[in-house]
Design goal:
Elements (H helix, E strand, L loop, with lengths): L16 E2 L12 H19 L9 H15 L8 E4 L2 H12 L5 E6 L3 H9 L3 E8 L2 E2 L1 H13 L4 E7 L12 H14 L3 E4 L15 H4 L5 E6 L11 E4 L2 H8 L2 H6 L4 H12 L2 H27 L5 E2 L7 E5 L6 H10 L2 E2 L1 E2 L12 E5 L5 H18 L1
Parallel strand pairs: 1-12, 3-4, 3-6, 6-7, 7-8
Antiparallel strand pairs: 2-9, 4-5, 8-9, 10-11, 11-14, 13-14
Helix pairs in contact: 1-10, 2-10, 11-13
Bound molecules: pyridoxal-5'-phosphate (PLP).
InterPro entries: Aminotransferase_I/II_large (IPR004839), PyrdxlP-dep_Trfase (IPR015424), PyrdxlP-dep_Trfase_major (IPR015421), PyrdxlP-dep_Trfase_small (IPR015422)
Organism: Candidatus Viridilinea mediisalina
GO molecular function, one term: pyridoxal phosphate binding
Length: 386
């Protein structure tokens, strides 16, 4: 019997240049290196890798991650502040369960990662948007909103922020705002979930210290993921938090029942790191994505009509394009797809439904020639619409 069910999330439609998907190019996934790491795992750690894992994650991966963060960032987190997750999506789901009750408020940037909004909705949370700009979230506005909400008796469960090369805008929180947010988190006893999915994918210079590193003993959780820097199908990430919160998560029913969320993969990634392959792989993908970033920015400048603007892109996967305000990118999408190019309409990234004249392009999936073709097609559609 032949299988007609999908094996993967990504759907590539014939004739359409897909600029909507923020997935890594399959050609950049390190299948050979991971195969070698899997073989080493079976040979040297088979028993442990196939057992129910320690709830916090295998000690050898926790130790390797702590050492690696110390080497790259100059701050070595104690392993009791670290735990292995099934990627940031799983970590967010777990943290919503631990930190919130239905009806609580979550503060997010406008715009923000649209699928985090889905997870918050799953938990019955009410999202309140804080405006942002090219320097990231307006932290002082977040403080004002927090005070208003609390004065009305509302419970604010946490603030969620993508601090580096955000999805969808590519913007990073400016260093002074990071400091202001870390300080506010401590003074106001506000939990901050710092989603750092893209921090290692910088193309010009490494980003400023994370909010977590500015206040490691504060109420800040940092979420890292192997989805972008290695492979999304691994379903693996990590979390840094106060040891008491790590213990709360480690003692959750799901981990008590099943042990580490992804024990074999965690071991395999530990072997990949032990073989010295992670840094090498990240340097390699950075070079590819830098080239694609340069290609898409160059063709955008040539092809998009006057009145369209975008931020400089220093890292991550996305270009956030602003069209003249009378254009609606949701309404334009069928025309773009008929012309052979797709994107994500901006309104999806705003919890409160604005952003109709923005669109998100991703340069992570396709090689430079395909990006150029896609943007040429988009330019033709926009020139007609303007
Ligand atoms: C900002 C952000 N956070 C989290 C995720 C998902 O992370 P993971 O694959 O580790 O669940 C994505 C994926 O697009 C993302 O853009």
């Amino acid at each position: 019997m032949s299988n007609t069910l999908p094996d993967i999330q990504l759907v590539v439609r014939p004739g359409i240049v897909e600029l909507g998907w923020g997935h890594p190019d399959p050609a950049l996934l390190p299948a050979d290196g991971l195969a070698a790491a899997a073989a080493l795992t079976f040979a040297a750690h088979g028993h442990s890798a196939l057992a129910y894992g320690a709830e916090q994650g295998p000690g050898r991966l926790l130790t390797a991650l702590s050492e690696r963060l110390g080497r790259l960032e100059g701050v070595t987190p104690p392993t009791e502040q670290l735990m292995i997750t099934g990627g940031t999506s799983q970590a967010l789901n777990l943290l919503c369960g631990q930190l919130s009750r239905p009806g609580d408020v979550v503060l997010v940037e406008a715009p923000t990662y649209h699928l985090a909004l889905r997870i918050f909705a799953d938990h019955g949370l009410r999202v309140v948007a804080v405006p942002g700009d090219a320097q990231g979230m307006h932290v002082e506005t977040a403080r004002t909103l927090l005070q208003i909400l609390r004065s009305r008796g509302e419970r604010v469960a946490f603030l969620y922020i993508v601090s580096n090369f955000g999805n969808p805008t590519g913007a990073s929180l400016a260093p002074d705002r990071r400091y202001a947010l870390a300080t506010m988190a401590r003074h106001e006893a506000l939990m901050v979930l710092e989603d750092d999915a893209y921090g290692e994918l910088w193309y010009d210079a490494p980003p400023a210290p994370t909010i977590y590193n500015l206040m490691p003993a504060g109420p800040i959780v940092r979420l890292g993921s192997f989805a972008k820097v290695l492979a999304p199908g691994l379903r693996l990430g990590w979390m840094l938090a106060d040891p008491a919160l790590v213990q709360r998560c480690v003692r959750s029913g799901m981990l008590d029942s099943g042990g580490c969320v992804n024990q074999f993969t965690a071991h395999m990634v530990a072997s990949f790191i032990a073989q010295g392959q992670l840094d090498q792989h990240i340097t390699n993908v950075r070079n590819h994505w830098r080239e694609r970033r340069d290609a898409i920015l160059a063709v955008l400048a040539r092809q998009l009509p006057a009145g369209c603007t975008w931020n400089p892109i220093l890292g991550g996967f996305f270009v956030w394009v602003r069209l003249p305000p009378h254009l609606d990118t949701q309404a334009l999408l069928p025309r773009a797809e008929a012309a052979g190019v797709s994107y994500l309409p901006g309104a999806r990234f705003f919890a409160e439904g604005s952003g109709q004249h923005y669109l998100r392009l991703s340069f992570s999936l396709l090689p430079p020639q395909a990006l150029e073709l896609g943007v040429k097609r988009l330019g033709a559609v926009l020139r007609k619409a303007c």
